[in-house]
Design a protein that fits this description.
Elements (H helix, E strand, L loop, with lengths): L11 H9 L8 E3 L7 E2 L6 E10 L10 H19 L2 E11 L4 H17 L3 E9 L3 E10 L15 E5 L4 H10 L6 H8 L5 H7 L5 E4 L4 H12 L2 E5 L7 H6 L4 H10 L6 E5 L4 H11 L3 E8 L3 E6 L2 E3 L12
Parallel strand pairs: 4-5, 9-12
Antiparallel strand pairs: 1-2, 3-6, 4-6, 7-10, 7-11, 8-10, 9-11, 12-13
Helix pairs in contact: 2-3, 2-6, 4-5, 4-9, 6-10
């Protein structure tokens, strides 16, 4: 159990009860919030996909971010990991550290968290509350048929590299915040409320050879794929998809646009590889899931990731975000 130190008006168990009342349910939850552990009944013959992400104030979101946006994002970044595996979300747990008990903040946080959970039929089955700096750790569990999981280690020489949606909005928003510049609403929305591409990930099972979500930066995340697969990659920076708002913002700064799109991260789009013979099926998967997909490069035999601008190789200062780097 947690150790939140609260005023007599609002104790830890009052907070837990406020969360429990909003947790949602599923028929496969035998026992949810309220005991030492949850009991689940996964469907026979299915594998579990499990992912965990932690969000800290000032690192993963600006401290002034609205509570309901923090709640949404805390779940979204975890659902994005399930999407990258081609898994269908089912359950989640929530560990919440708060500086002090705040009913209004908690209600808004749960509003955002459960709004996204309801969209994907996810039940909140347990977790922990404690007192400390604002930090949210979410564990998500999903279901997938054996042998159907999208992994990082399946990319083959000759495969095309694809991305979903558009890239760079979240990184641009974060850059503006760090520079104390006004943040356009469209970019703020992409930073605060990313869209986990769950439907696309499920549609790509059996089509894509490898997949990852773009959290640390496109080049860094492609680097994870090629390292796991024992291959290399070439990425065409000129074809990276950008939103109209981002293009307008970077109209006079092409270098910033390249940096935000190629190395910025936090978009939580999917980057995946597929054989050229699967192009039509990739396009159909995008249409079926209501998600734009763009071919942005190809898998090569030579190791490493080359970012090309025309015939020239672009050398970024950093390929993406890395915790604990100097």
């Amino acid at each position: 159990s947690g150790r939140v130190q609260c005023t007599p008006m609002t104790g830890e168990f009052d907070l837990i009860q406020r969360i429990r009342a909003r947790a949602g349910t599923r028929d496969d939850v035998v026992l949810g919030i309220g005991d030492d552990a949850a009991l689940l009944a996964p469907p026979p013959g299915m594998q579990l996909a499990v992912a965990t992400d932690t969000l800290n104030s000032g690192v993963h979101f600006p401290p002034e971010t609205a509570a309901r946006d923090i709640g949404w994002k805390a779940l979204a970044v975890n659902l994005s990991d399930l999407a990258a595996m081609g898994a269908t979300p089912a359950w989640c747990s929530l560990s919440l550290s708060m500086p002090q008990a705040d009913d209004a903040w908690l209600d808004d946080f749960i509003d955002g968290f459960m709004a996204l959970a309801a969209m994907h039929d996810v039940a909140l089955i347990g977790g922990d509350t404690t007192r400390g700096p604002l930090s949210i750790c979410v564990n998500v569990m999903g279901l997938i048929e054996p042998g159907r999981a999208l992994r990082r280690d399946g990319a083959q020489v000759g495969d095309d590299i694809w991305v979903s949606g558009t890239l760079g909005d979240a990184a641009a928003a974060l850059s503006l915040w760090q520079s104390d510049k006004p943040m356009p609403a469209e970019l703020r929305e992409r930073l605060n409320r990313p869209t986990p591409r769950v439907a696309l990930g499920c549609a790509l099972a059996g089509i894509a050879t490898a997949c990852i979500d773009v959290s640390d930066g496109l080049l860094a995340d492609i680097g994870h794929v090629v390292a796991a697969s024992g291959v290399g990659a070439e990425v065409d920076l000129d074809v990276l998809p950008a939103s109209p708002r981002l293009r307008a913002l970077a109209a006079d700064d092409a270098e910033a646009l390249r940096r935000w799109q190629a190395t910025g991260g936090d978009d939580y789009e999917l980057c995946f590889t597929a054989s050229p013979a699967q192009t039509q099926r990739v396009i159909e998967a995008g249409i079926a899931s209501g998600t734009a997909v763009t071919r942005v490069g190809c898998i090569k035999a030579a190791p490493g990731v080359r970012a090309l601008q025309g015939d020239d190789e672009w050398q970024p200062v950093s390929t993406g975000h890395e915790h604990f780097s100097i």
